[in-house]
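Sorry, explain these tokens?

___
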Amino acid sequence: MTTATHGTDLRRQLDLTLLHARYQVLETVRVPVALIGNLVFPALALAFFVLPQREVAGDPVAATQAVSQLALFAVLATFIFTYGVGVAEDRALPFDPYVRTLPAGPLPRLAGRLLTGGLFSLTSLVPVVLIGAIGTAADPGAARVALGVVAVLVAGTPFLFAGLAIGYAFTIKAALPLAQVLLFPLAFAGGLFLPPQMFPAWLDTASGFLPTRAGRDLVVHATTGSGATVADVVVLVTWTVLLASLAVWAYRRDEGRRFR
């Protein structure tokens, strides 16, 4: 294959990826209620449970931790529902089997879905960051805010794969309650609603094995300079590999059932 041909193929793949991303974004924003939960709930949690606690909201470190935790929750919710519920919903549509048989292959569609989820996850951060900046003493600085955004996306990666696994393994009727059942207990046990310092000893120990706790510590470390350990990185990488493997298995299982 010549260099020119290879370059043409790459451009074609990029064009198809952007086309899929544009279609998925438009499909989502046409039903605005689909975005409300991801945009509003973390911001409301910050406004109702953090702002009234002046000892937290008025302390720069505690406020930064609280904003970081709820920012991570916003991204996790976006990943779980965008990929878990969104993929399951797409699979229920008659158009989905046709698209998956096209010669372009699965990569452009998957890449487009990743771009869509990344866009909505960044959007979900805006209300939380704005309320934190206006209503609390959190002031990590521009460099740490940027590092925190990167850390939030990295910490959300296991849940991206978890969402894909749910979406390809279950129908829409099962995916929606399963996403809710997984998200909220993991968020609480991971210290996204209450800081781990308030946990009893047994819960503090158990949460150290969860991807939400490892992700929370990583994000807090990015925004405050302390919190994460090597163990958190190991836990996060381990969960990412496990859930990525589960997502690949779910995709191949679904493909084998529907197209053999």
Observations:
- The mean pLDDT is 86.
- Residues 3-259 form one domain.
- The CA atoms of residues 161 and 243 lie 5 Å apart.
- The radius of gyration is 19 Å.
